[in-house]
Write a structure and sequence with these properties.
The complex is a heterodimer of chains A (191) and B (291).
Chain A: E1 3-6, H1 12-21, E2 26-29, H2 32-35, E3 41-44, H3 49-58, H4 62-70, E4 74-78, H5 80-85, E5 86-89, E6 100-105, E7 116-122, E8 126-132, E9 137-141, E10 146-151, E11 154-160, E12 163-166, H6 177-190
Parallel strand pairs in A: 1-2, 1-3, 3-4, 4-12, 5-6
Antiparallel strand pairs in A: 6-9, 7-8, 10-11, 11-12
Chain B: H1 3-16, E1 20-24, H2 27-36, E2 40-43, H3 48-54, H4 63-72, E3 77-82, H5 86-94, E4 99-103, E5 124-128, H6 131-139, E6 144-147, H7 157-173, H8 178-187, H9 192-201, E7 207-209, H10 217-225, E8 231-233, H11 235-238, H12 243-255, H13 260-266
Parallel strand pairs in B: 1-2, 1-8, 2-3, 3-4, 4-5, 5-6, 6-7
Helix pairs in contact in B: 2-4, 2-12, 8-9, 10-12
The chains are: A alpha/beta (191), B alpha/beta (291).
Chain lengths: 191, 291
């Protein structure tokens, strides 16, 4: 098993630490030749979606990664990663990979002063810490996309077959449960 | 400020890592910066190079300007207040600014105390030239540190010096036993617990960006190779001949700071860089402000 961590901007290091704790081999994707490698899962970290989205295009990673996801590569997007995977963004004209059947709202809670932490129920895992930093949430899921967590009635985690997204940051908390959930997705697919 | 708020504020800085924070003086510049790939913008009335040439007292920006920039972009917006000027910070907090830079670029308001940043909900970034300064700012509640460098000069030497000193001093802690650490803590006016933590994790306990004098993609990559988590670019972009192109190139250089081939491509045909001032030609030494 090998997981690629998109390392263009943002909190990719924190995801790498989580993978290390789970003893999962990983490598960083910073340019085209990295994206062309064979790997079993992709993590798109938090950061600024406008920056990562632009760099995906500028560095020629966009088409390769989009195609891999559409062909079934397991992908896990947190915060900005969720925005990058969404087919629809309510308050932005910039759409990025657009592989997941969700409609999202960027900076849905407002500016940094509204960032917060809570404990929430994640379907199939149980109660986990959820850290929201200038976070988006999912306004709507459609087709086969399944809601995995809600906080204050807003959707904050979802899964669409090979794609997993959270609007919070599991990589910033001590809990490894969401990363484990993602690794299980990869293992089941590889069977 | 409660502990969980402080953690959330440190977390926002983590999201900025590997990114470029750009100084902008208008909504139009903010949009250019966002489109070029800035991970945040610093809203200012004047960029440091112009503050230098204008002279006089330099203060917090007009809230109207800050609000217009907040409306223009979707990325985090930062703004500067004077060192020790906690009322300017209160005003910036009322604007729901995403990060306050308590900055030596502006004229200091207090030569004895920095702002007690624990009194605020919004996060602060502060400049530092050495480990003692960085830890004093963290102890006062800063959730992000940047090197001071020498702003508005286009000269990288001070930023390099400050980054190296911080690294060397952290390495030096490694050799110390608890008694020596206690002495060091006392000398630097910081708590033993904080020093001990730095010794353990072998880095600052918050995100550390490079700032001051970054003018080219190579400058940005240099600071990243020296261990910066990201960079601030002030005058270097909008004082250059082609801000859009230079800004985008610096963003890419920060992502691929270790790839000399990509850096060579990025450095090509950017138009004139800012002219800059050499270290020995500087009249106002901003890095001396706020120790």
């Amino acid at each position: 098993m090998l997981v690629g961590v998109l390392a263009l901007q943002g909190a990719f290091y924190e995801h790498e630490k989580a993978l290390e704790k789970l003893q999962i081999p990983y490598f960083e994707i910073r340019q085209k030749k990295d994206a062309e490698k064979d790997f079993d899962g992709l993590i798109i970290p938090g950061g600024e979606s406008t920056v990562i989205g632009k760099l995906l295009k500028d560095l020629d990673l966009f088409d390769i990664l989009k195609q891999k996801i559409e062909n079934g590569l397991c992908v896990f997007g947190t915060c900005a990663g969720l925005i990058l995977l969404a087919k629809e963004i309510l308050n932005d004209t910039r759409i990025h990979l657009a592989t997941m059947d969700i409609k999202v709202k960027r900076n849905a809670y407002g500016r940094q002063i509204s960032s917060f932490e809570t404990i929430g129920e994640f379907k199939g895992i149980g109660k986990i810490p959820m850290i929201f930093i200038r976070a988006p949430y999912i306004e709507e899921v459609y087709n086969d996309c399944e809601v995995l967590a809600k906080v204050n009635n807003n959707i904050v985690a979802a899964r669409n077959k090979n794609q997993l997204v959270t609007s919070f940051h599991p990589e910033l908390s001590e809990s490894l449960l969401v990363h484990k959930y993602f690794i299980d997705m990869i293992l089941k697919q590889n069977k | 400020m409660k502990q969980d708020r402080y953690e959330l504020n440190k977390n926002l800085a983590q999201m900025l890592k590997g990114g470029v924070i750009m100084d902008v003086t208008s909504p139009e510049q903010a949009i250019i910066a966002e489109n070029a790939g800035a991970c945040a913008v610093m809203a200012l009335e004047r960029i440091p190079a112009d503050i230098r040439s204008a002279g006089g007292v330099s203060r917090m920006s007009d809230p109207k300007l800050i609000k217009s920039i907040q409306q223009a972009v979707s990325i985090p917006v930062m703004a500067k207040c004077r060192i020790g000027h906690f009322v300017e910070a209160q005003i910036l907090e009322a604007l729901e600014i995403d990060y306050i830079d308590e900055s030596e670029v502006l004229s200091p308001a207090d030569d004895k105390y920095h702002i007690n940043k624990h009194d605020f909900e919004v996060p602060f970034v502060c400049g530092a030239r050495n480990l003692g300064e960085a830890l004093r700012r963290i102890q006062e509640g800063a959730s992000m540190i940047r090197t001071k460098g020498e702003p508005g000069t286009g000269d990288i030497i001070q930023a390099v010096r400050h980054m190296r000193i911080i690294k060397e001093e952290i390495a030096m802690l490694n050799e110390m036993n608890d008694e020596e650490l206690k002495d060091y803590a006392k000398k630097e006016r910081v708590s033993f617990e904080l020093i001990k933590k730095v010794q353990e994790i072998k880095r600052l306990p918050v995100v550390n960006f490079a700032a001051g004098g970054i003018a080219t993609p190579a400058d940005a990559a240099l600071m990243m190779q020296l261990g910066a988590d990201g960079v601030f670019v002030g005058s270097g972009i909008f004082k250059s001949k082609n801000p859009e192109k230079r800004a985008a190139a610096i963003v890419k250089a920060v992502t691929n700071y270790n790839d000399k081939k990509i850096l060579a491509e990025l450095s090509e045909d950017l138009g004139g860089a800012m002219v800059g001032i050499n270290e020995d030609e500087i009249k106002i030494i901003m890095e001396e402000r706020g120790k």
